[in-house]
Design a protein that fits this description.
The chain has five helices and ten strands. It is of the alpha+beta class. Strand 4, helix 2 and strand 5 form a beta-alpha-beta unit.
């Protein structure tokens, strides 16, 4: 496991378009299908990373808490399933996330977003401009800080309220994406 921070793409960057398979449903899902009136949260996660596992229950709760709000949520795994078989689509399909969990086999979407780690979070407003990229919260495996999602939820709540998201943002930290 290589401890990797997110790349902190430029605020205001446009959300790259995508259409990727959802192993749970067998259907392809696009950015346009998951975005809602106020915007969309795009997360890069995987099954095996201890940093994702550490917040997995909170991700499920976040998905349920925001399901009926005007902000779409989607997760994408771009890890190389040949070298990390626990991140393969058949294993992804076993997850019970309340949002689409898509597989980026070519890794082109992860590269377009400049995703670097799992978890890596990108929040876009109604115009699909990046307003937040950074950490879920300050909790990490072993640091004894509670998992709250405070940083990300604050940004999401600002978007939903039509308010400006604070620009002082801390990078996410996790396992590097497993590139081919």
């Amino acid at each position: 496991m290589a401890l990797t921070p997110s790349n902190m793409v430029e605020l205001g960057s446009s959300a790259p378009d995508f259409k990727l398979p959802d192993p749970s449903s067998g259907q392809s899902v696009s950015l346009q299908e998951v975005r809602k009136e106020k915007g969309v949260l795009v997360m890069f996660i995987c099954n095996h990373c201890p940093y994702v596992i550490h917040i997995e229950d909170a991700l499920v709760k976040l998905g349920k808490d925001y399901a009926d709000r005007d902000l779409g949520i989607v997760a994408i795994s771009a890890n190389d399933a040949r070298t990390y078989p626990e991140d393969a689509p058949d294993k992804m399909a076993l997850k019970s996330y309340p949002f689409p969990y898509l597989y980026d086999e070519s890794q082109s979407v992860a590269k377009a977003y400049d995703a670097a780690c799992t978890p890596d979070f990108f929040l876009f407003d109604a115009e699909l401009r990046c307003v937040y990229r950074g950490q879920f919260d300050h909790s990490r495996p072993g640091n004894d800080k509670p998992v709250t999602g405070a940083d990300l939820k604050s940004a999401m709540d600002s978007v939903l309220a039509g308010e400006r998201v604070a620009e002082n943002q801390s990078p996410s930290i996790g396992c590097n994406i497993k590139w081919k």
